[in-house]
Amino acid sequence: MTAFIFRRLLSAIPVLIIVSLVTFMIMWLVPGDVSAEIAGTDATPEDLAAIRERLGLDRPIWERALAWYAALAKGDLGYSYLLNRSVADAVLERLPVTLSLAGLALVLATVMGVLLGIFAAIRHNTIFDQGAMVTALLGLSIPDFWFGIVLIIFFGVWLGWLPTGGFVPFSEDPAGWLRSMILPAFTLAVTQMGVIARMTRSAMLDVLNQDYIRTARAKGMTSGTVIFVHALRNAMIPIVTVVGVLTGVLLSGAVVIEMVYSLPGVGRLIVGAIQRRDFPIIQGGLLITACVFVFVNILVDIIYVWIDPRVRDEG
Questions:
Q1: Rounded to an integer, what distance in angstroms lies between the CA atom of residue 95 and that of residue 102?
Q2: Count of C-beta atoms within a 10 Å radius of residue 27
Q3: Which long-range contacts (CB under 8 A, 24 or more apart) does 86-90 make?
Q4: What's the pTM value of the predicted model, to 2 decimals?
Q5: Which of 39, 73, 123, 189 could form a disulfide with 108, with the two C-beta atoms 3.0–4.6 Å apart?
Q6: What's the fold here for domain 88-314?
Q7: Non-local CB neighbours of 241 within 8 Å, separated by 6+ positions
Q8: Under a CB-based contact definition with an 8 Å cutoff, are residues 47 and 94 in contact?
Q9: pLDDT tens column, 213-243
Q10: Where do the H-state alpha helices sit in the chain?
Q11: 110: exposed, middle or buried (Cβ count in 10 Å: 0-12, 13-18, 19+)
Q12: Cβ–Cβ under 8 Å, residues 164 and 152
């Protein structure tokens, strides 16, 4: 197992290098000049030139790229042009908000999607199956920003049950954290629940038709044991795969949800940095987000091995 994990960690290094390079190149090829944001509207050309020289923006792009990688090798993500603080501090301060949102959304989407998919599979070709798949399709079709606004109006404004925005750290108040995150997480989860439900239904239908399932039923095992112990575990590989892929979707979707619910997360930080051309924040935020996604996929590979040890030999 240790060798398997080590191989996966090594394979992640080229991915992160490519992601960081692509991010750097795209950011520095985007039109716009952060020196104008720093200097203000009354700045003279001489003022702009002085700022560009101070920030190193007058150097060739290849020289800036080498400096970026040299700093990155030392664990330095740079310094924000506009926040007057290190990129690492700015991003890591907001990372718990984004991870809370994406993590809770992933749990909700997985639980709802798996249960809905199992229900559809065991009621195959019935009105319940069709209803479950229609529900999954609705989840896939609803724009998350619109759904978020509807939930805010209904639960936050009309009923007053939940806050309409803001974030409470889990360490300060677990109940407050859940109240502040349940609406954003549910909004994000519903759009992905349909994907998991459809994959679960398909995987379960394949497994439920296997001979060993019929044998288990013939031995008098209860339906719950057959479905959740024997069938679900053998259907988990494709389900875990799609859950791992959806982690990246949830992290990217968190940007929109953070704006809708006024959450101080990494997504909102990056959007503000894009608007103001604060490129170090954008690069650092995207790189840390990519690291989280790569780590989740390594975790998915470990879960593969736990479910089916043959994967370890193939990897």
A1: 11
A2: 18
A3: 87/280, 87/281, 87/283, 87/284, 87/285, 88/284, 90/269, 90/281, 90/284
A4: 0.82
A5: 189
A6: MetI-like fold (1.10.3720)
A7: 300
A8: no
A9: 888 888 888 888 888 877 887 888 888 888 8
A10: 2-29, 34-39, 45-55, 61-73, 87-122, 127-141, 144-151, 174-208, 211-218, 223-225, 232-234, 236-260, 266-276, 279-307, 310-314
A11: buried
A12: yes
Quick check: 167 and 95 in contact, CB under 8 A?
A: no
How far is CA 279 from each of CA 25, 136, 166, 284, rounded to the nearest angstrom?
11, 39, 26, 9
3-state secondary structure of 79: strand
pLDDT tens readout for residues 42-68? 777 777 788 778 777 778 878 888 888
Residue 41 has pLDDT above 70, yes or no: no
The answer to whether the CB of 270 falls within 8 A of the CB of 281 is yes
Structure tokens at 141: 């079709």
Structure tokens at 144: 């998350």
